Amino acid sequence: MLATLALVSPVRLAAADLLVSADAHVSATYPSTNFGSLPYLQVGGTSRTFIRFDASTLSDLGADSMTKANLTLWINRVGTPGSISVYEVPDSWEEGIITNGNAPAPSSSLVATMPVNGASTFITIDVTNVVRNWARTASSGRTLLIIPAESAPATTVFLDSKESVTTSHTPTIQVVNRGAQGATGATGPEGSAGPAGVAGAQGATGPQGSTGPQGPTGAAGAQGVTGATGQTGATGPAGAQGATGATGIQGIQGVTGATGANGLTGPIGPTGIQGATGIQGIQGVTGATGPTGATGLTGPTGVNGLTGPTGPTGQTGPTGPTGTTGLTGITGPTGPTGAGLTGATGPTGATGPTGPTGGPIGHMSAYNSTNPTIAVVLGGTTIPLPSQTSMSGFTVNGGNTTFTVALTGRYRIRYRLTTTTALLASSQVTQNGSPIASLVYSPSVSVDTWEVESIVQLLAGDTLELQFFGLLGAANIHGGAGGAQFQVMRVDDGIV
Q1: What's the pLDDT score for residue 105?
Q2: CB 262 within 8 A of CB 206
Q3: Strand ranges inside 326-402, DSSP E
Q4: What single-letter DSSP state applies at residue 107?
């Protein structure tokens, strides 16, 4: 008889994502400002990040069957490499209201710490234990706090928020669960018969049966005639053989041979229908602008303006009248020479008009040596330059931030900025409020020096400003003339 094999389905693992329902960072530099609508989350500097996850589906998954829970974050930019730590905090905040002043305090229990070294990459942090605890207590929202690790307090990184429309890598928690056992699959077709098993060893010989009874003695031969002794008569025939004894008891049956190999496994059932393809993610953000090309050679110094013509020499005054000749003395000893009176000097002629003054040659040099702190915003903040050592052909406004050009021409523009700490910030010079492309410096890593030089065409009436941009935070400029320098020199009056 053929046996039926029951196929038992393997245990399945089910995965589910906990999605972000609110996220924001807060800044100690701006304690009353809400940043909930920004497309990024800042960790470090003076900022902390709060992320709320929708935990309403955790009760369906079950804490005891949960095998893994991973927090996935997209590192968009890195200001200073290091490590970040994750804490659980009370879920008592709102995305559009939270500030540094009203944010919930972290718990004393550290969830996890993870090193961060590079940008434009994902990191995965194991948060299994804390998510299991969430599953045991019903709640619609749970919050994690992300800050620099205690071992790397200078760490500064920027994560994608749920408002990001460029890379759009929103934080997620993926929960892996051991699912219920599936239904028993249909019995496969019966396999072919296996080969015959090896013959069992021969059983021991049974005991010999008892000897049968002896057959009856044959009849005696007839008495021969007495006479000469004849030859000995032939031996009479043997009596009939006795009946065969009964068959002995059958020996014990030998050991059963080994069971033959199982038949081939039946074919696997058809694969289930594939799930629908997920929605395509939003296109990734454009890569960072490449580094600025090497600065071109400095153009020749412009020639000095022409010296104004010398005014005409005043007219010579008229010669005074010649004095009267003295009388000739009496001949004799020569008398003293008569001294004729010298005529009065004529009046000095009128001074000629002063020639026109030569025009300005067009140059300026300004700096800030006061060790200022600049509150930089993403769109740009103008840097004041209150000390001007030369201003020929330029004027400056009352705030010492805007410089107006007096003469059309080509100008060599150079600036240098240094800060007390390295920052992931950009610098630029604007012409009438718009950035001059050749004077924009956007480093891909944190720096403490920004220095750019270029030849630019300017028109009379144009305005110039020196700015920091691309950072939401403070920039502390070095004291002394080397902290913030801005120099502009006219090289010629040509129009390109």
Answers
A1: 84
A2: no
A3: 363-370, 373-376, 381-382, 387-392, 394-396
A4: P
Kindly give, in sequence order, each residue whose CB lies less than 8 Å from that of residue 122, ignoring residues fewer than 6 positions away.
72, 73, 74, 75, 169
Name all contacts of 244-253 with Cβ < 8 Å and 24+ positions apart.
244/212, 245/209, 245/210, 245/211, 245/212, 246/209, 246/210, 246/212, 247/209, 248/206, 248/207, 248/208, 248/209, 249/206, 249/207, 250/206, 251/203, 251/204, 251/205, 251/206, 252/203, 252/204, 253/203
Count of residues in the chain: 496
Please state, in angstroms and rounded to a whole number, the distance separating the CA atoms of residues 72 and 148. Answer: 17
- The two tokens of residue 225 are 């005639």
The set of residues, in sequence order, having a beta carbon less than 8 Å from that of 102 and lying 6+ positions away, is 93
The pTM (predicted TM-score) of the whole model is 0.40
Q: How far is CA 172 from each of CA 65, 66, 211, rounded to the nearest angstrom?
A: 20, 17, 95
Q: How far is CA 226 from CA 229, 232, 234, 235, 243, in A?
A: 7, 13, 17, 18, 38
Contact 449, 484 (CB under 8 A): no
Strand-pairing partners, residue 87, are 110, 145
**Total Cβ atoms within 10 A of residue 378:** 11
The pLDDT tens digits for 27-39 are 999 999 999 999 9
At 158-195, the pLDDT tens digits run 999 999 888 889 999 999 887 555 565 567 677 676 67
Provide the H-helix boundaries in 74-127. none
What lies within 8 Å, CB to CB, of 91 at 6+ separation is 52, 139, 141, 142, 143
Q: How confident is the model at residue 490 (pLDDT cuts 50, 70, 90)?
A: very high
Running DSSP on this structure, what letter comes out for residue 227? Answer: S
Strand order in the sheet with 82-89: 20-27, 47-54, 141-148, 82-89, 110-116
Beta bridge partners of 434: 431
Cβ contacts of residue 235 below 8 Å, gap of 6+? none
The β-bridge relationship of strands 66-80 and 156-160 is: antiparallel
Q: Of 464, 456, 315, 453, which Cα lies nearest the Cα of 394?
A: 464
- β-pairing, 373-376 with 156-160? unpaired
Decide: 42 and 161 in contact? Cβ < 8 Å. Answer: no
